Hints:
Layout: H1 2-15, H2 21-34, H3 47-59, H4 64-72, H5 75-78, H6 83-101, H7 114-131, H8 134-148, H9 155-175, H10 179-193, H11 195-207, H12 209-229, E1 234-240, H13 243-253, E2 264-270, H14 273-286, E3 288-296, E4 309-314, E5 320-327, H15 328-336, E6 342-345, E7 348-351, H16 353-358, H17 360-369, H18 375-387, E8 390-394, E9 400-404, H19 409-416, H20 418-422, E10 424-429, E11 432-434, E12 446-450, H21 467-479, H22 511-517, E13 518-520, E14 528-530, E15 542-546, E16 552-556, H23 560-564, E17 572-573, E18 575-577, E19 581-591, H24 597-605, E20 611-619, E21 625-633, H25 636-647, E22 652-664
Parallel strand pairs: 2-5, 14-16
Antiparallel strand pairs: 1-2, 3-4, 4-5, 6-7, 8-9, 10-11, 10-12, 13-18, 15-16, 15-17, 19-21, 19-22, 20-21
Amino acid sequence: MRTEFAKLLKLIRKNSPNADLELIRKAYRFADRAHRGQKRLSGDPYITHGLAVARILTNLRLDVTTIAAGLLHDTLEDTPVMRDELLKEFGPVITNLVDSVSKIGAMPSPGKTLAEKQAASIRKMLVATVNDVRVLVVKLADRLHNMRTIEFLPPDRIERISRETLEIYAPLAHRLGLARWKWELEDHAFHRLNPAEYKEIAGRVAMTRREREAWVAGTIDLLQQQIAAEGLRAEVVGRPKHLYSIYRKMLQQGKDFDEVRDIQALRIVTQSEPECYAALGTVHRLWTPISGRFKDYIAMPKANGYQSIHTTVMGDKGMPIEIQIRTESMDETAQEGIAAHWRYKEGEITPDQKTEENLRWLRQMYEWMQEAHTAHDFLDGVRRDVQMSEIFVFTPKSEVKELPAGATPLDFAYAIHSDIGDHCIGARVNGRIVQLNHNLRTGDMVEILTSKNQRPHVDWLEIVASPRARTKIRQRLREAGELEPVETGKTKTAPRRPPAPHKPEVRVVDDATRGKLIRIEGKKDMQVQFAKCCNPMPGHAIVGYTTRHPGISIHRVDCGTFVRANPDPHRLIEVSWANDNQIRAALRVTAGPRSSILADITNAIARLNISIREAQFKPDEDGKRHFDFVFDAPNRGAVDRVTRIIKTVTGVTDITTQYVEDVPLAPRP
């Protein structure tokens, strides 16, 4: 052990010549004494784990306080050492780090289930992380080494820990920008949860390595020469994709390994931000960019601080090339994440402004964690929150709001203010009225419609994507008596009282709002009056009736009073709500003989918020394939977007529009 400890001291001294090595020596002696006689399941002395965690933290060039906490992180959990003793020896900062990493499950907790212990431990860790992010970093380093040596555990624990790693800890590493840790955690978990698939992909990658390396070297050479010829200061490097990302792409796109071509990415690292955009121009002059595969994370960074330009181009022989372009400082952030922006002063962490911005997601998570949840609700919320990718949408005043992918207008409303969320009846997205369950996309401009008579419904819990919105909705429902309050100390929520009858798709609005939403034979701003006998609201199926007074009377189609009055059929008129019509289109797509082409097409258009009604395959005698699609879209512009996206799919040779027509939405009760 002394040899390993000497290597650790040498590495710390190399990273920071003025580091307080005496603190590290003291922590090592204390941990070695506390763990004396203990063995890991591998048979190694227990102190080897603390040393390994400390080395992982040192490789990230962290401060000696964090490294010392790494050496000591299991002393409170797995040894007789008490908190007061640790506090006396190392002070409050290191003691709080070690205590926050310790699992609650290690303490006596009669009557608590495994899920409750797991939830309590993760909650404790995340709450402590809000005050000092190093808590989470030490925990991730601990989990990383445990995954490297997990083969010695019983099978049931291997599966549970691997699943927890894939669902919670790897996404948390991503949230902190620790890309290498995330990749390794994912690959270890993938290896244990899907051993056959892991072995197959690893073998296939190894078999094609020589051919792939030759292609990458040639591509880098060509790109480096072109960049130099244009006077740019930049370096081009190759980056192989890790195994789990290849597996995930195969699942998402329905492809075999041989069809996943972009398993190697290129990275251009420049000296300045303007050179990033100049290099992008160089890349697009060399190769044709693939539509829909460009993202500018420099202009709009990810929540974890990641900045880079992403583009995918079509290289030689139809080989797609994924290229990332960023500066040296951006590359450092991409590799080291949040640790790249820490400043230290006498063992205390002082995050700079960039770090504070990157931790905004953690503080938002802390807000919804304050409400009492069951263990299931809490763990489900954490999984949802940490795994989500982000979208960026705009308010009418051009303010940017960051939301999880899959967010709806309800998520946007609650992100602005809980009162706006509680009274939300709909939204205008890019000027078009949409329903509450409409999926928002990056770049959308969103304006929320509210009514003082609106209130949250139980069904809203199925619509929202953000834990914040879900928490606020639950809180209002409990206040209204539609959900029973969670009883502290109970393992489950009490049985829910049946909610008051309501029609979640029917929005209660005032007359002025209703007047703006009504359409008479497709025209708006017509003079109408709403029948008091049935009081129609947006969402009801409606009919218009020309009256002797100026204007048109609007009734529900199931209005008993209206039906019993035997209305004159010649005075009936077609009316609808503003969002009660949609477009139905039929396309014929012609493609060459390539497997998985249908999966590629449907995956390409899945994010466009359309509903595919039919998809038929018709092979041709000359080997071509015809796919007939019928789908519903919100407007004709969406049909054009579908056509453009399908044209980018490799193998598609022609697209013919069969018809485009207006159709009413299905009537709602």
